[in-house]
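Q: Complex I assembly factor TIMMDC1, mitochondrial, please. Structure only.
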Amino acid sequence: MEPVEKPEEPVPMSPSRLPGMPNWGTATVVGIFAGLLYGGSKEASASVSKDAEVMLKMGSTQDKREQHRLMRDAMEKRFIRVTRGSIIGGLRLGGFTASFFSLQNFLAETRGVHDVFNVVGAGSATAALFGLIMPGSLAWRARNVVLGSVLGATVCFPLGWVQLKLMEKANEGNKEDTSHHGEVTSGVGAAIERLEQQLRK
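A: Structure for Complex I assembly factor TIMMDC1, mitochondrial:
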């Protein structure tokens, strides 16, 4: 008796992401590196005035040891300021980016559609959240929440519209490539069928 082959069980497919949804991890990494560069460059440019003060102090003394000590202290302080600014900038922008894109993906998955209102809602909620955690009194934080929510929605509406338009353009290009590939495949299939007919003759 021939062994009975068991039918292969279908592999459960993972739920697919909605088209156009950004990758949360990639966006967070990009935000962290952008924050590192911005915070470091900001502190480096702010250190120019302090370097001028150090040069004035070095010019007021003729002692080589004192000049060397002033230069070393200035370089150490500048390195600490730039490093601290880079870390704080990376954490702030990385946290903002992670919150924004995670909220955007959550809204898209909950509503089942990816549109401009997801971007507006995520931007408004993230700006309001960061306004709430800023230091200050309760009234100051409430003001920051309202201002952040309005400003976030205002800024994110055109950004979301541009994102959707770019997504539509990308989808149109993918459809054209798919149709062209289908035409090429059908042409190859017709050639194979003609060759088979000639061999049968």
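A: Brief note, in case it's useful. DSSP finds four helices and no strands in the chain.
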